[in-house]
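The material for today's practical consists of a large collection of protein records. There is nothing in a record beyond a sequence line and a structure line. As an example, a complete record with its sequence and its structure tokens follows:
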Amino acid sequence: MADFFKYKGYPLVRKGKEIYYGNMSDDYVCMITILGTRKVKELEVANKVKVILMQTAEDVPLHQAVVKNSDRNSLYEALDMAYTWLDKTK
């Protein structure tokens, strides 16, 4: 198994503007989508982020898999929200 970057014990996997947070082998995972960015000096920083808590069961249709969703103003806020949601599912 590959070693993934972790935040508060859960793995983070990024593909483009989507970040998957959590273990796919668990019942739930969070999908974080960067919807907007702003420039801070030379760096693009997320300022509009969507967080979705979803079930990982393969037999659940995608529209039913979504349990919670929220919009946040930074990637840090989004990760903090995702961590709280995942931690409560344990």
Q: What stands out?
A: The radius of gyration is 13 Å. The chain is about 20% helix and 50% strand. The CA atoms of residues 12 and 21 lie 5 Å apart.
